[in-house]
Amino acid sequence: MTDPNRHSRFEDAQGLIFGTLMCALGLQFLQHAGFLTGQTAGLALLISYIGGYGFGPVFFVINLPFYWLGYRRFGLAFTVKSLIAVALLSAMAQIMPQYLSFDNLHPLLAGILFGFVTGAGLLALFRHGSSLGGIGILALMVQDRSGFRAGWLQMGFDIALFVLALIWIPLDRVLWSLPGMVILNLVLAINHRRDRYIAL
C-alpha cells in the first residue's frame, strides 16, 4: 500500500528538476549582474569570479566532502538525491547561459528575483528529501537536532562569506548582492519548518 504521506519517485523526480531549474535560473540573475550569494554556491561563485573557472565544475567539486556528512545523518536516499541535485544544477548552470540572456536587468531586481526564485527552488529540494549539499546539509542537520532553523544558520555563513568577498569584489557589487541573500534566507526561514511541511 502506498504511503500518502511520502512522495512517489515521480514526484521526487519532478521536485528535483523543478528545484534545480529554479536555482539555475536564479544563478543567471546573479552572474549577469556579477553578484554573490551565500553557502557553497556563493563560495563557488567567488572562486569562479577570482579564477575565471566555470561555476558548474567548481560547485560540484566543493560539494564532494559534504556527502559523507549527509549520508551519516540523513541516509543513502538523501545523499543520492543531493548528489543528483548538485550534478543537475552544475550542468544547468553551464548550459543555461547559452540560451538565456538579459538586455536590461536592474541590480535591485536581479537580487530580488534571485532571492525568491532560488528560495522556491531550495524549498522544493528540501521537501523532496534533497539539498544542494554543503552548508545546506549542515543547516538541515542542525535544524533536525536542535530546532534552530536552517535559514538562520545559512544567513550567518553568508554574512561571513560576504565579508571575505570584499577582498576581491568591489564594495558596490557586494552591497547590491545583499537584498537577494536576505530574501533567500527569509524565504527559507519562514517556510522551511518542521512543524509544517518537511518530507525527508
UniProtKB/TrEMBL annotation:
<dbReference type="GO" id="GO:0005886">
    <property type="term" value="C:plasma membrane"/>
</dbReference>
<feature type="transmembrane region" description="Helical">
    <location>
        <begin position="147"/>
        <end position="168"/>
    </location>
</feature>
<dbReference type="InterPro" id="IPR003740">
    <property type="entry name" value="YitT"/>
</dbReference>
<feature type="transmembrane region" description="Helical">
    <location>
        <begin position="174"/>
        <end position="191"/>
    </location>
</feature>
<keyword id="KW-0472">Membrane</keyword>
<dbReference type="Pfam" id="PF02588">
    <property type="entry name" value="YitT_membrane"/>
</dbReference>
<dbReference type="InterPro" id="IPR051461">
    <property type="entry name" value="UPF0750_membrane"/>
</dbReference>
<feature type="transmembrane region" description="Helical">
    <location>
        <begin position="108"/>
        <end position="126"/>
    </location>
</feature>
<keyword id="KW-1003">Cell membrane</keyword>
<keyword id="KW-1133">Transmembrane helix</keyword>
<feature type="transmembrane region" description="Helical">
    <location>
        <begin position="74"/>
        <end position="96"/>
    </location>
</feature>
<feature type="transmembrane region" description="Helical">
    <location>
        <begin position="12"/>
        <end position="30"/>
    </location>
</feature>
<keyword id="KW-0812">Transmembrane</keyword>
<feature type="transmembrane region" description="Helical">
    <location>
        <begin position="42"/>
        <end position="62"/>
    </location>
</feature>
<protein>
    <recommendedName>
        <fullName>5xTM membrane BCR, YitT family</fullName>
    </recommendedName>
</protein>
